[in-house]
Amino acid sequence: MCLGIPGQIIEISDAERKLATVDVSGVRREVNVACIADGPLDNLIGVWALIHVGFAMSRINEEEAAKTLEVLKMLGEAQDEIEAMRASQAMMERAS
Amino acid sequence: MKFADEFRDPAAARGVLAAIAGVTAEIGATADAPIRIMEICGGHTHAIFRYGLDKLTPPGLEFIHGPGCPVCVLPMGRVDECVALAERPEVIFTTFGDAMRVPGTRKSLMQAKAEGCDIRMVYSPLDALELARRNPDREIVFFGLGFETTTPSTALSIQQAAAEGLANFSVFCNHITVPPPIRALLDDPRMVLDGFVGPGHVSMVIGTRPYDFIARDYGKPIVVAGFEPLDLLQSVLMVLEQIRDGRAEVENQYARVVPDEGNPVSIAACADVYEPRPSFEWRGLGEIDLSGLRIRERYAGFDAERRFAIGYGAARAAVPEPEGCACGEVMTGRIKPRQCPQFGTGCTPEMPLGALMVSSEGACAAYYQYGGGQLEPAG
Ligand code: SF4
Q1: Which residues form the signal peptide (chain A) (predicted)?
Q2: Which of these, A93, A64, A45, lies nearest to A5 by C-alpha position?
Q3: pLDDT one-digit tens code per residue, B173-187
Q4: Helix, strand, or coil here: B113?
Q5: Is B277 left (phi over 0), alpha (psi -120 to 50) or beta?
C-alpha cells in the first residue's frame, strides 16, 4: 500500500472524474490521474507513473519504472499489489 | 554469489559499501559505539532485510527501524472501532488488505469477516466509491489508513463523493503524518539517533521542506532515499558524510521522483479535506501531538466518526497492549525483535500478537521472514 507500483497510462476513460486506464504489468485498471495532470488529459497517454492505491502520484520515466518494478518484485510487493488489484476487481464483479 | 545477483549494479554497490566502511572508520564508530541511523519508512526496513544491507555494512553502523509502517502503529482501540463499524448491519466496511489481520482486543477484521460481517478488501478507495454508487441502500465505510502516500487518495475520493452527492459513502479516517513522530522520537531522551534516511514516496507528496526542523532544530542529518538497494546505500553514505563533516542538512537522494515542493494537487486536496487532530495515539509510542488527520466540518457528511458517533475521542481510554508484547520497545529501537519474548513463539506472521508482525514492512515480520540476527554476515 505504501510502496505503490509503476504503470503506463493507456487511455483516458472518464475525463470528468479524471480517470484513466493504466497497464500495470499486464493488468489493466482504472486509476485517478488528478495528481499528475497539468494540461489536457490526452497528453498523459503513454506516460509512466507510480500508482498508489489507484491514484497516479508521480510521473516517472520508463527506466525508473523498470528499476522500481524490479525492486518491488524482489520484495514480493509487486505480486501483492497486483493480487490486491485482481481481488478487488473480482469482488466488484461479484457484487454487481 | 548471492550479493552479485541481487544488485542491479554490483560494482557500484561494492564501491558505495567501501565508501560507507571508509567514512564509518573516519568517524571512529565501532560496534560498541555505533552510528545509529533510523530508516523511517517501512518499505526501507523491508528492503534492508531483503537485501541484507545490515549485514553488508560495517558493525559501526546500526540501522534503527522507524515507525513508518502504518499498519504497525495502529492501536488496538482503532481496530476495535473498525470491528464495531463493520458489525452494523447496514454497513459494508471496506479496507486495504493490510489491515485485515491486525489484532484488536476482541478480534481482527479477518475474524469479524469470518463471523459474517460484510467486510470487503479493496485495492483503492475508488472501489469503495463504486460500491457506494452500486449499493444506494447500504452504508459504505472506507477505512482511511496510511501516511502521506495514501492521504491524498482518500481526500480526492471524499471530494469526488461530495461532487456526486453520494450520501451513503463515508471514511473512517485514521490517516497519520510522518514528521510529528520523528519530532517525538527526537524529544525522547532514551532515543539516541545520529541521522535519518527519509521516506521516498511520502516525500514525493509532501516534498522535503517538512523535514527542515530535523536539521535546523535538532542538528541531525536526513537524506530522502529511493527504494533500490543502491539508493538506500547511497543515502546512508550521504548521512555518514554529513556526520563526518559536522553538517546537518536535508538532502534529496531521490530527486528524480521527489520534487522539493512535493505534489501541489495532493497537498491542496489534503488541505481542503483534513485538519490535524490535537493529538493521536500511536501503538508503542503513545499520544503524539498533531500527528493524525480528521475530516473537516465542511465534509462532515462523509466522516464515519460523526455519522456513527464512533472513533477517536468517542471512547478515549487507551487499550493496553497484550501481555508480554514488546512492540513499543521494538518500535522505538530500544530492543531488536528477537529480544521480544513472544518473537517466533507467541507471535508469528501467521498468528500475530503485535502489529509489527502483520505487515512485511513491520520490523518483526521482516526479521522473521529473512532470519535477521541469525544469518552469518554475507561476503
Ligand atoms: S514479536 Fe510480536 S509481540 Fe514481540 S514486538 Fe514483535 S510484533 Fe510485538
Answers
A1: none
A2: A64
A3: 999 999 999 999 999
A4: helix
A5: beta
Residues 6+ apart with CB under 8 A from B303: B170, B171, B173, B294, B295
Cα–Cα nearest to B143, from B63, B79, B216, B208: B79
The residues facing B169 across adjacent strands are B140
Tally of CA atoms within 13 A in the half-sphere of B140 that contains its CB: 26
Helix-helix angle B42-50:B229-245, to 10 degrees: 110
Which DSSP string corresponds to B14-29? HHHHHHHHHHHHHHT-
Considering the segment(s) A5-95 as one domain, its CATH architecture is Roll (2.30)
DSSP-based three-state secondary structure for A24: strand
Cα B177 from Cα B183, distance rounded (Å): 11
**What's this model's pTM, rounded to 2 decimal places?**
0.93
Ranges of chain B whose pLDDT falls below 70: 1-5, 313-318, 372-379
Distance to chain A for B33, nearest Cα, Å? 31
Q: Name the one residue in this structure whose C-alpha cell is 471514511.
A: B171
* DSSP conformation class of B291: -
Flag whether residue A84 sits within 8 Å of chain B, measured between CB atoms. Answer: yes
Q: Find the CB nearest B96 among A1, A57, A76.
A: A1
Q: Are strands A5-14 and A27-32 parallel, antiparallel or unpaired?
A: unpaired
In tens, the pLDDT along B328-350 reads: 888 877 888 999 999 999 899 88
Question: What residue spans of B173-276 are helical by DSSP H?
Answer: 179-187, 200-206, 212-216, 229-245, 264-273
Rounded CA separation B207/B257 (Å): 10
Phi, then psi, of A11 in degrees rounded to 5: -155, 160
3-state secondary structure of B64: strand
Please give, rounded to a whole number of angstroms, the shortest distance from the CA of A88 to a CA of chain B: 5
- Closest-CA residue in chain B for A30? B126
* Whole-complex ipTM: 0.94
Question: By the 8 A CB rule, do B307 and B295 touch?
Answer: no
Contact A60/B134, CB-based, under 8 Å? no
Q: Where are the domains of chain A?
A: 5-95
